[in-house]
């Protein structure tokens, strides 16, 4: 996309009329033509999924934690990527008018919002982007919101203007409403918003930045949770009262912009926002969250869980809501012991891109285990699912999923060891695979019971012989772990591992 200015225009002087269209005094150009063209061909915030690969030509390489093989020769995921000419560290020279060059992995962008300009119409959003290093950045807020808002409209048709040339970037209506709310009355405000700070058209940058979202939400001084302009507004020149979230439950005086029904904790959790998978890590990792509701701002910190559970409606709160994970908000990590338990806690959450249902959960849990699982938006859903379940079974040490193998009824293009995963099957898979039922644990428990039984064997020679056998069996997992050397064929997805 080119700039709307007449070429060249090295020193633009932009002004905005009552029609909210930018014009340049230096070159005499108007953004009207480009705005019309962009609005006539609006795009969707969600990119289409890459097509599935042909059977026998899967070319699997994700994630790098899985050992892939090809033609009976073990190869690393990086080698398969190289054979497909997929570089893990490509040349970072791609340029974008709006975003500039592709970010390095140790960089991220921030939005700089300046105080409201009196001559600008209130609906116009103008901002600048700054690039910062992971080890050197200013205080900032990270925004948690949904692209489509409460009505699910994720069409990119509303312009925001960036930089001194006022380059156009179309965003959703909900994103623009959030940016208008955040615009400070004086000074500047530094914020991170995924749809703006990440070049969504650059798949490499998108994957790199999403892989470090946990770092971004941990490093901010607070998260700004935006529910939508149907439930939040601010009065010009008035500082909103600030209250802890649990006081929302019994608040009698709360002005709302468009709702007549009172808002309480239960109705808050029923909003579409809380059904989205990415917000889980966005609310668990930071130390503080602020939520504008009505004409007030409510805050969440590690004490919020205790206060909510003490409310009259708090008994069974986490069982009755669809957001049981919210009890961990601002606590910095999940308390679940394994990936299975965490997925069971979050499986009802949704995402516009179905791949994010995996990336969002794996990203948060990988921080707990210090394992880097890098999202790859260049792979198909088929590739993602095979890689995810292979990682889960082998690296996660959960062979129980093999009991759920679809076998002969497996979907076309999937290996027979893959479990059924669509619909409710996804939640059923993980709710039945908690750590207490691991094969290894059950086997060791059985051998321990056998040794206890053998203590009563009257024949000492028979007792010693059987005890020796039980001890050998108890050490089998230490001598040859079942997942050691496990591999997946990169072409057809076949899994090879020790089961005895």
Automatic annotation (TrEMBL):
Domain named Heterokaryon incompatibility: residues: 140-282
Leader sequence segment: none
Pfam families from the UniProt entry: HET
InterPro entries linked to this entry: HET, HetReg/Transcr_Mod
Name of the protein in question: Heterokaryon incompatibility domain-containing protein
């Amino acid at each position: 996309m080119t700039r709307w200015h007449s070429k060249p225009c090295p020193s633009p002087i932009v002004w905005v009329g009552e029609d909210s269209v930018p014009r340049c005094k230096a070159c005499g150009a108007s953004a009207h033509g480009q705005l019309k063209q962009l609005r006539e061909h609006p795009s969707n915030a969600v990119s289409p999924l890459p097509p599935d690969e042909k059977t026998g030509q899967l070319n699997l390489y994700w994630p790098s934690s899985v050992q892939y093989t090809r033609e009976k020769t073990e190869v690393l995921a990086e080698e398969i990527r190289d054979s497909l000419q997929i570089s893990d560290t490509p040349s970072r020279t791609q340029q974008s008018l709006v975003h500039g060059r592709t970010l390095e992995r140790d960089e991220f962008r921030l939005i700089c919002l300046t105080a409201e300009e009196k001559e600008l119409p209130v609906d116009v959003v103008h901002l600048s982007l700054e690039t910062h290093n992971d080890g050197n950045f200013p205080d900032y807020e990270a925004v948690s919101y949904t692209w489509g808002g409460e009505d699910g409209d994720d069409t990119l048709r509303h312009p925001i203007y960036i930089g001194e040339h006022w380059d156009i970037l179309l965003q959703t209506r909900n994103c623009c409403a959030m940016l208008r709310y955040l615009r400070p009355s004086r000074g500047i405000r530094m914020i991170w918003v995924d749809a703006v700070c990440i070049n969504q058209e650059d798949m490499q940058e998108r994957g790199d930045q999403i892989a470090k979202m946990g770092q971004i939400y941990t490093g901010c001084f607070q998260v700004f949770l935006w529910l939508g302009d149907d439930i939040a507004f601010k009065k010009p020149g008035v500082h909103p009262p600030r209250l802890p979230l649990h006081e929302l439950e019994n608040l009698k005086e709360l002005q709302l912009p468009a709702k007549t029904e009172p808002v309480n904790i239960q109705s808050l959790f029923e909003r579409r926002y809380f059904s989205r998978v990415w917000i889980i890590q966005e609310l668990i990792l930071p130390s503080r969250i602020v939520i504008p509701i009505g004409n007030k701002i409510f805050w969440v910190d590690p004490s919020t869980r205790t206060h909510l559970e003490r409310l009259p409606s708090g008994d069974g709160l986490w069982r009755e809501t669809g957001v049981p994970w919210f009890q961990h908000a601002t606590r910095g990590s999940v308390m679940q012991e394994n990936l299975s338990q965490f997925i069971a806690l979050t499986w009802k959450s949704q995402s516009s891109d179905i791949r994010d249902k995996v990336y969002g959960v794996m990203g948060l849990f990988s921080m707990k285990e210090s394992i880097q699982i890098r999202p790859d938006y260049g792979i198909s859903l088929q590739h993602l699912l095979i890689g995810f379940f292979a990682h889960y079974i082998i690296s996660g040490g959960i062979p129980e999923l093999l009991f759920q193998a679809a076998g002969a009824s497996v979907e076309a293009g999937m290996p027979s060891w893959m479990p059924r995963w669509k619909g409710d099957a996804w939640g059923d898979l993980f709710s039945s695979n908690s750590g207490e039922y691991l094969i290894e644990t059950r086997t060791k428990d059985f051998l321990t019971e056998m040794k206890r039984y053998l203590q009563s064997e009257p024949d000492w020679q028979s007792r010693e012989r059987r005890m020796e056998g039980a001890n050998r069996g108890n050490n089998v997992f230490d001598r040859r772990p079942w997942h050691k050397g496990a591999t997946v064929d990169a072409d057809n997805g076949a899994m090879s591992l020790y089961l005895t």
